[in-house]
Amino acid sequence: MSLIYTKTYASLSTILCLILLFSQSLSSSSGDQQPTVYEILRDYNFPMGLLPKGVLGYDLDQTTGKFSAFLNGTCSFSLERSYRLRYKSTIQGFISRGRLSSLEGVSVKLFFMWVDIFEVSRNGDDIEFYVGIGCAGFPIDDFVELPQCGCGLNCPKQRKASELSLSSS
What keywords appear on the UniProt entry (predicted)? Predict the structure, then answer.
């Protein structure tokens, strides 16, 4: 009788241990949050401002570097240097440390024509954009802030609720 009791007790304790281990692994994995696309850019040595505010999500295959970022529609804005950028609702390519290659979904307006940006690389404190046979470099400081669709970095400041109530009375 004690042999049956010992086997039953041992199998019950084994089952309880497995349940505890399984529930702990579920709770720890559900508590882990996926980094934002902006944090991913930083991890690959890029400034966060390469993408506009409002990216809804992204996919990243860390083994191949293939990525996609998703916006809520197309997005365009002007940079201070009079360049106009346009992002499609899906941006994709390959990311590696300091390099975005085979880029699709980002273009710049040069004169009267939209030209696709097919590669972006970091060269020291500069970000270089490759279009066709040309390349343009900009200081990395130009991409510290997240641009906003429509107004870029020159968006009007949102007024605080207290300012609105004072001005309307």
Answer: Signal
Token pair recorded at residue 47: 């400034």
Share of the chain above pLDDT 90, in %: 54
Own/partner pairs, 81-90, CB within 8 angstroms, 24+ separation: 81/138, 83/108, 83/109, 83/110, 84/108, 84/109, 85/109, 85/147, 86/114, 87/51, 87/52, 87/149
Q: What is the pLDDT of residue 112?
A: 86
User: In the Cβ-directed half-sphere of 82, how many Cα atoms lie within 13 Å?
Assistant: 3
pTM, whole model, 2 decimals?
0.72
